[in-house]
Every structure is written in structure tokens, then in C-alpha cells.
Design brief:
By secondary structure, the protein is of the alpha+beta class. The protein has one domain: Winged helix-like DNA-binding domain superfamily/Winged helix DNA-binding domain (Arc Repressor Mutant, subunit A). Helices cover 64% and strands 16% of the residues. Strands 1-3-2 form a three-stranded antiparallel β-sheet. The longest helix is centred in the last third of the chain and has 29 residues. The chain starts with a helix and ends with a helix.
Length: 94
């Protein structure tokens, strides 16, 4: 279930609608090579799927399974952030 920040960022972007690889690259600011590798990894896991080709670009969309995994990671990260806040605020009086 563990996803890295790049994967979570891509799924979050796609949860709002389909995007091209070029559009995703504008948002996540990583090299095209690394982005394509990450997209392929997400496709193999069944989190996203290709929807169409436009010239030399690919349009991708999140799958239902990808939405489920994004939600599970959101819940985990939300709880982790709350715990971090408690620990840090105890130490730094925030």
C-alpha cells in the first residue's frame, strides 16, 4: 500500500480529472523520464489507465482502485500528520 510522494501527487491530480503526461509534468516538476517510469508503475498496479493518445502525448485517468488507494493513503497520512502535530506541539508549545 505504501506510495511515495510522487505517486500520491499524481493520483491526487488525476482524482480531479484526466490529464496528459505533459500536464502532469507541469504540476509535479520531475523529469519526463522519471514521470513516465512512475506512471508505468501506477498503471501496473492498476491505479491509473491510459485513456487516449494526442499526438506524442498520452492522456491518463485514475481508476476506481486508484481512488480507493488514494483514500487509504489519505487516511494514513492524516493520522500521521495529527500524531506529528501532537508530538511537535508538546515539544515546541505550539
Amino acid at each position: 500500500m505504501a506510495m511515495n510522494v510522487k505517486e500520491l501527487a499524481i493520483l491526487t491530480l488525476l482524482s480531479e480529472g484526466e490529464l496528459s503526461v505533459k500536464e502532469i509534468q507541469e504540476y509535479v516538476s520531475i523529469s519526463r523520464r522519471n514521470l513516465v517510469k512512475t506512471i508505468r508503475k501506477l498503471e501496473r498496479k492498476g491505479y491509473i489507465q491510459e485513456k487516449a493518445y494526442v499526438g506524442d502525448d498520452v492522456i491518463v485517468e485514475i481508476t476506481e482502485y486508484g481512488m480507493e488507494m488514494l483514500y487509504k493513503n489519505f487516511v494514513y497520512l492524516r493520522d500521521l500528520i495529527n500524531e506529528m502535530e501532537n508530538v511537535l506541539c508538546t515539544k515546541f508549545d505550539c
